[in-house]
Amino acid sequence: MAARLLPAVVNISTTQTVDAEHAPSVPNFPEGSPFRDFFDEFFDRHGGRPTPGPRQATSLGSGFIVDQSGYIVTNNHVIADADEVTVTLSDDTALKAEIVGRDTKTDIALLKVDSDTPLPAVGWGDSDASRVGDWVMAIGNPFGLGGSVTAGIISARARDIQAGPYDNFIQTDAAINRGNSGGPLFDMDGDVIGINTAIFSPSGGSIGIGFAVPANLAKQVIHDLKEYGRTRRGWLGVRIQSVTPEIAESLGLDSAHGALVASVTEGGPARDAGVIAGDVILSFNDRAIDEMRQLPRIVAETEVGSTVPVEVWRDGSKQTVEVKLGELEEAEESGLLASDPSQPGGPGGAAPESTGVQVLGLTIRSVTAELASEFDLPEDTTGVVITDVNADTDAARKGLRPGHVIVEVNQRPVSTPDEVRDALDAARDSGRSSVLVMVQRDGSMSFLALKLD
């Protein structure tokens, strides 16, 4: 298998011009300094002082051919900021490469070389079918040595190493070192199931913890880069957070799963479909959402413009809405993702309480112009503002502070302390041990489950 696959794996070298201001310089010591004498003697012995000006920096990595016409996959960080990219084939043929496109979110790049003859290529496998314990083989260019083969097993799947918004890495103990970046991870059928991207290593060398971008995530990225020169990801238009056991209990869910919608973007696909803050997304396009972090990846992989069913938990029951997906990149360019989340409304006009009302260790008051000025709240703030927090309470441990605003209780808008108190009483009467509150803090919305005792 190694003999068959090695010809499709390439070495990638890049050159980058470093400006003089970023290039290392020689210290300028005063006349008569022993350090000046030392450096003068050193440079005289090695051909003189270096001349100021731009310099060439080089780097090495790996890649693999996915199309006989010359398309090559590698990591974005291998070719980032490169002025020139050279691909060296297994027979030592060196070809200049063009950067077709790159994606920083998944650290994937697509290159193109021109060749007079068809190049050896490898095919994609199904990374979702791989199991922990399956044997795998990695081929790459560690430390610039050229095609090296290592083998191991899949140690874990769906690893989140905080490298990007779509982390879903395959972890392997096949030796991966510097220079292996961008190389393929093969299953025992000789199909690519991952792109070797990162290692965990205190020393810089392999200690048996390597990470590969799964093929099923990479394939769509590569298709978009080849077709459009950029990615085209699906966009739902929600900000989400995890469903904790307390939040699940407060909402009447039988277990902690799904993705809780903290806010909905004005003008986004979710808003148009009727998704509201407080909904828990249980499935998207008939794919179950067990953990919150699954949703962004599944949405991103879904075709832009397609209409898909989204199952949500709302008011104690399941509901399904149809959402027509937008494009994430267009939303970023238009500034929709940077806009303030919409504020849930509520009835107003009640007279403010002079001293406030105590609930759950919190002192709360209706929003007034004086309180809005004191806590620097937006003019259109609705809800009840927290003016004091008992330190020895669940609310304090959950991070609530004076100036935070309670906007909803159990998915119902509130604008007076009495409405908050009524909602808490209703939750107690229904046998709940915790209550779900939507809080506006630091310019954004989030949900918290607070204990009722």
UniProtKB/TrEMBL annotation:
<dbReference type="InterPro" id="IPR001478">
    <property type="entry name" value="PDZ"/>
</dbReference>
<dbReference type="InterPro" id="IPR001940">
    <property type="entry name" value="Peptidase_S1C"/>
</dbReference>
<keyword id="KW-0378">Hydrolase</keyword>
<dbReference type="InterPro" id="IPR036034">
    <property type="entry name" value="PDZ_sf"/>
</dbReference>
<feature type="binding site">
    <location>
        <position position="77"/>
    </location>
    <ligand>
        <name>substrate</name>
    </ligand>
</feature>
<feature type="active site" description="Charge relay system">
    <location>
        <position position="107"/>
    </location>
</feature>
<comment type="similarity">
    <text>Belongs to the peptidase S1C family.</text>
</comment>
<feature type="active site" description="Charge relay system">
    <location>
        <position position="77"/>
    </location>
</feature>
<keyword id="KW-0645">Protease</keyword>
<keyword id="KW-0720">Serine protease</keyword>
<keyword id="KW-0732">Signal</keyword>
<dbReference type="InterPro" id="IPR041489">
    <property type="entry name" value="PDZ_6"/>
</dbReference>
<feature type="domain" description="PDZ">
    <location>
        <begin position="225"/>
        <end position="316"/>
    </location>
</feature>
<dbReference type="GO" id="GO:0004252">
    <property type="term" value="F:serine-type endopeptidase activity"/>
</dbReference>
<protein>
    <recommendedName>
        <fullName>Probable periplasmic serine endoprotease DegP-like</fullName>
        <ecNumber>3.4.21.107</ecNumber>
    </recommendedName>
</protein>
<feature type="binding site">
    <location>
        <begin position="179"/>
        <end position="181"/>
    </location>
    <ligand>
        <name>substrate</name>
    </ligand>
</feature>
<dbReference type="InterPro" id="IPR009003">
    <property type="entry name" value="Peptidase_S1_PA"/>
</dbReference>
<keyword id="KW-0346">Stress response</keyword>
<feature type="domain" description="PDZ">
    <location>
        <begin position="353"/>
        <end position="442"/>
    </location>
</feature>
<dbReference type="GO" id="GO:0042597">
    <property type="term" value="C:periplasmic space"/>
</dbReference>
<keyword id="KW-0574">Periplasm</keyword>
<dbReference type="GO" id="GO:0006508">
    <property type="term" value="P:proteolysis"/>
</dbReference>
<feature type="region of interest" description="Disordered">
    <location>
        <begin position="331"/>
        <end position="354"/>
    </location>
</feature>
<feature type="active site" description="Charge relay system">
    <location>
        <position position="181"/>
    </location>
</feature>
<dbReference type="InterPro" id="IPR011782">
    <property type="entry name" value="Pept_S1C_Do"/>
</dbReference>
<dbReference type="Pfam" id="PF17820">
    <property type="entry name" value="PDZ_6"/>
</dbReference>
<dbReference type="Pfam" id="PF13180">
    <property type="entry name" value="PDZ_2"/>
</dbReference>
<dbReference type="Pfam" id="PF13365">
    <property type="entry name" value="Trypsin_2"/>
</dbReference>
<feature type="binding site">
    <location>
        <position position="107"/>
    </location>
    <ligand>
        <name>substrate</name>
    </ligand>
</feature>
<keyword id="KW-0677">Repeat</keyword>
